[in-house]
Amino acid sequence: MFASVVKKGKVANYGVSVFKISEAMEAIKRPNVKSIQIVFNIFRQRPAEVFFKEAKKRNIAVIVRGPLASGLLAGKFNKKTKFPENDHRNFNINGKAFDVGETFSGVNFEKGLEAVEELRKLVPDNFSLSELALKWILMHDAVTVAIPGAISKSQVQMNAKVSDLEEISNLLPKINSIYDKLIKPEVHNRW
User: Fold this and answer.
1) Cβ neighbour number for residue 160 with a 10 Å cutoff
2) How many CB atoms lie within 10 A of CB 11?
3) DSSP assignment string, the chain
4) Domain spans of the chain?
């Protein structure tokens, strides 16, 4: 479909948003695809394995959506948290409305809370958990931009300042260890 729009001269290039790595790898083969939007975060690390390398090699922009796993990586939820009836974190928690990978990045809520508690122990003094999660994403050189949600001006400002925070490469092995232990077995190969 998009190839015909390019052929008609209506657009020169376009971007796509995908759910799965296989879709990203297929899209990357199309000559006029210049950006791919995909879920990537501390709880959804698989895109960094092969897709990021290929995107970088082909100069394809990587747009990260869901960088805070539906807010789970902001660290403000607990087992008693209740989401409004019309919130996908309530009605799609098991994937009944759309791909479950779009809600908490497909991570079981309670397992995600357990991982968040482990991540809290790693947060540097001058960081919040959400800043750590965003900085972790930006440490991947194939990432062009992350698009975190925000509901206040202060959240937008905080998100924008993350790129200026000190690097956290010394924490990467510990962060990845938490992923490997608590999250990877359940979600890694699903998307």
Assistant:
1) 11
2) 10
3) -HHHHHHTTS-S-EEEE-SSHHHHHHHTTSTTEEEEEEE-BTTB-GGGTTHHHHHHHTT-EEEEE-TTTTTGGGT---TT----TTSHHHHTTTSSSS-GGGSGGG--HHHHHHHHHHHHTT--TT--HHHHHHHHHHTSTTEEEEE---SSHHHHHHHHHGGGSPP-GGGHHHHHHHIIIIIHHHHTTT-
4) 2-187
Which of 3.40.50.720, 2.40.10.270, 3.20.20.100, 3.40.50.620 is the CATH number of 2-187? Answer: 3.20.20.100
**pLDDT tens digit string along 115-169?**
999 999 999 999 999 999 999 999 999 999 999 988 899 999 999 999 999 999 9
Query: In the block, which residue shows the tokens 């357990």?
Result: 114
What is the pTM for the complete model shown?
A: 0.92
